[in-house]
Every structure is written in structure tokens, then in C-alpha cells.
Design brief:
The chain is of the alpha+beta class. 19% of the residues lie in helices and 31% in strands. It is built from two helices and four strands. It has a four-stranded antiparallel beta sheet with strand order 1-4-2-3, covered by helices on one side. The protein is globular and about 30 Å long. The two termini are 18 Å apart.
């Protein structure tokens, strides 16, 4: 699924640049989409959700992610 913001390496320094806004995000392992999620509140932002995955607190299913993408949405 294409995202208007592009694809970024899934590293701490790159996630620090992710928006602190609600929206949707995707995680890839190289070219394979492995997770699609949403951040839908002022406390659960795209950046917060990505840090949860990066730290491993979101579960083992996304540990192999190498890239991410996002799109800000209001709904």
C-alpha cells in the first residue's frame, strides 16, 4: 500500500521524525508488508505506536520490520 509520506528505515532516529498525530502506518520487512495499524487518539500517535513496535512492546510479530510508512488521517 503506498503512503504519501514515503518509506523510511525502521530505526530510532528515523522514528523520531514520525508525526505525533493520529493516522495509519505500515511496517515492511524489506518489500513485504507485515503490519498495518492505526494510531487514533491524541495519546496514541503515529510516532508513539512506531516506538512501541520498535521497542518490542507491541509483540513479536513486527520485530523483523525494516521499513515503515505513515499517513496522517483524521478518521
Amino acid at each position: 500500500m503506498p503512503f504519501g509520506g514515503g518509506r523510511y528505515r525502521f530505526t530510532r532516529s528515523m522514528v523520531e521524525g514520525a508525526p505525533a498525530d493520529p493516522g495509519v502506518y505500515a511496517l515492511w520487512e524489506n518489500d513485504e508488508l507485515i503490519y498495518y495499524g492505526r494510531a487514533s487518539s491524541s495519546s496514541i500517535t503515529i510516532q508513539f505506536a512506531l516506538f512501541e513496535h520498535l521497542s518490542g512492546r507491541a509483540g513479536p510479530c513486527t520485530e523483523r520490520a525494516t521499513h515503515y510508512g505513515w499517513e496522517i488521517t483524521l478518521d
